[in-house]
């Protein structure tokens, strides 16, 4: 059952009632009151009439509205907030023109080509084809110990193939040379030599 | 500061105003949700530097921006200027847009604030005596029973309504216009004007009452003098002004 409020309680709800801002419960209370109160009904009529004038008199149509985009864009460009593609490209080109002479790109390209050609025409001996670089070809600033080599290497005259520094293959080669010297042909040796008498 | 946290509001108790209840008008329908999603997509593209997306956003919302400004400041040129300035501010603050909220709420807030600042800088309308010299030619009928269009031509009605709105303080004007013309729910108006839901309902209630008083007062004067608002604007005495300022009239 909807409570029927008195006029003073309902008065402050009338302006929201005419605008449809009341919830279902409050609206029902106002309607119940208006059904019995002529004074408040007249107040609602006056409010509704002025509200109708307000809604009718305020601007609704956009028939006079100008297109705002061009103005917005012009302001953004003018303030430097945005820059158009058309204006940005000439600016970039102008900046490039200011920073270098017109012939500079051609001269730079020619210099690069010339340097490449000179490099290609260098003599072969200057270009090690394989193996490690000679020590003196490496700018190390003084005599350096050669880097450890992998694979076979030639023995130095004072280095024994049986020494600890020799590789197993070199030791075998040295052993073969010793065997060959022992097994020399007889005709080429003296008796004492054959007997081992010095 | 008053009870609603509204520094501009007169110190009138809102007790007696009903508590806000959910109303049918305050729900967002699917069309609004689609429009909001479309706005957010345009905003993301604009944030990425796509000028055409920002242009689409402007063209989509320029009518409402212009209309809000036009209804508050009262002339086409100022309205266009304010609406354009609002979009420039939108562009400059694209990066700070909060995607938890709708773009229209943000745009309305910017336009409304610009328009209110404009109104506060402008001279009060009632100090100009020459306005609407020929408005008094109209014979008004009782506003209680007749539609306003029956007694006034549309352009004259617009002038009368504008004169009544100009008599209200800007914070009443903005809330009335956002509700009556833009049809926004009170909770969205609250976000736009930076006030609570209760304060917006109070301003709506009070603004309608003040507009009604001004509308009826001008109607009575036109009937009495048969000359219209030129005499009307001069008819206010100092006590009228003091009373109006206390109650939110300008």
Low-pLDDT runs of chain B: 1-14, 125-149, 228-242
Number of strands of chain A: 0
Q: What is the CATH superfamily label of the largest domain in chain B? A: Winged helix-like DNA-binding domain superfamily/Winged helix DNA-binding domain
Tell me about the largest β-sheet of chain B: none
Number of strands of chain B: 0
- What is the ordering of alpha helices and beta strands of chain A? HHHHHHHHH
- Provide the residue-averaged pLDDT of chain B: 76
Contiguous uncertain segments of 5+ residues of chain A: 87-96, 127-155, 159-166, 194-198
- Work out the helix count of chain A: 9
The chain-level structural class of chain B is mainly alpha
Following the backbone from N to C, one meets helices and strands of chain B in this order, namely HHHHHHHHHHH
Q: Would you give the CATH topology of the largest domain in chain B? A: Arc Repressor Mutant, subunit A
What does the largest sheet of chain A look like?
none
Task: Kindly state the percentage of residues in helix of chain A.
Answer: 40-55%
Inertia-based shape of chain B? globular
Structure description:
The complex is a heterodimer of chains A (198) and B (250). By secondary structure, chain A is an all-alpha fold. Among the domains of chain A are: 7-56, no CATH class; 69-103; 161-198, no CATH class. Chain A has helices spanning 7-11, 14-19, 24-34, 38-57, 69-78, 85-99, 104-120, 168-182, 191-195. Chain A is elongated and about 145 Å long. Mean pLDDT of chain A is 70; it is low at 87-96, 127-155, 159-166 and 194-198. With 250 residues, chain B is mainly α. In chain B, 63% of the residues lie in helices and 0% in strands. Chain B contains eleven helices and no strands. Chain B has helices at 30-47, 51-73, 76-92, 103-121, 148-151, 154-166, 170-180, 186-193, 197-225, 229-234, 238-247. In chain B, helix 2 packs across helix 4 and helix 8 crosses helix 9 (197-225). Chain B starts with 29 loop residues before the first helix and ends with a helix. At the A-B interface, helix 1, helix 2, helix 3, helix 4 and helix 5 of A face helix 2, helix 3, helix 6, helix 7 and helix 9 of B.
């Amino acid at each position: 059952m909807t409570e029927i409020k008195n006029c003073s309680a309902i008065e402050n709800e009338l302006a929201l009632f005419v605008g449809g801002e009341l919830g279902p419960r409050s609206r029902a209370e106002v309607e119940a009151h208006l059904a019995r109160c002529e004074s408040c009904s007249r107040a609602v009529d006056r409010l509704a009439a002025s509200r109708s004038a307000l809604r009718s008199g305020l601007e609704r149509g956009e028939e006079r509205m100008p297109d705002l985009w061009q103005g917005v864009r012009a302001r953004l460009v003018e303030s430097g907030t945005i820059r158009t593609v058309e204006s940005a490209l000439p600016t970039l080109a102008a900046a490039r023109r200011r920073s270098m002479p017109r012939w500079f790109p051609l001269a730079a390209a020619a210099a690069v080509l010339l340097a490449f050609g000179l490099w290609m025409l260098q003599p072969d001996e200057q270009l090690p084809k394989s193996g490690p670089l000679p020590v003196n070809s490496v700018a190390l600033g003084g005599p350096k110990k050669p880097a450890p080599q992998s694979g076979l290497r030639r023995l130095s005259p004072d280095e024994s193939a049986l020494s600890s520094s020799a590789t197993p293959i070199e030791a075998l080669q040295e052993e073969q040379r010793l065997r060959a010297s022992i097994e020399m042909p007889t005709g080429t040796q003296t008796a004492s030599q054959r007997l081992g008498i010095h | 500061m008053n009870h609603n946290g509204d520094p501009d509001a007169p110190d009138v108790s809102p007790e007696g105003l009903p508590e806000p209840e959910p109303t049918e008008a305050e729900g967002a329908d699917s069309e609004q949700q689609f429009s909001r999603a479309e706005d957010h997509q345009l905003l993301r593209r604009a944030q990425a530097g796509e000028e055409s997306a920002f242009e689409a956003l402007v063209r989509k919302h320029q009518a409402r921006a212009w209309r809000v400004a036009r209804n508050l400041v009262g002339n086409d040129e100022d309205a266009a200027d304010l609406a354009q300035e609002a979009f420039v501010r939108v562009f400059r603050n694209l990066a700070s847009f909060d995607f938890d909220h709708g773009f229209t709420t943000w745009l309305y807030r910017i336009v409304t604030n610009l328009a209110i600042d404009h109104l506060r800088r402008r001279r009060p309308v009632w100090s100009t005596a020459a306005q609407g010299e020929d408005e008094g030619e109209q014979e008004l009928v009782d506003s209680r029973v007749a539609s306003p269009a029956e007694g006034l031509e549309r352009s004259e009605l617009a002038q009368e309504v504008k004169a009544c709105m100009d008599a209200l303080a800007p914070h009443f004007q903005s809330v009335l216009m956002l509700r009556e013309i833009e049809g926004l729910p009170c909770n969205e108006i609250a976000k736009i004007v930076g006030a609570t839901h209760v304060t917006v309902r109070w301003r709506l209630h009070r603004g309608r009452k003040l507009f009604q008083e001004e509308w009826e007062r001008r109607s009575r004067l036109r009937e009495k003098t048969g000359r219209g608002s030129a005499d009307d604007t001069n008819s206010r005495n100092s006590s009228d002004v003091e009373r109006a300022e206390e109650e939110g009239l300008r």
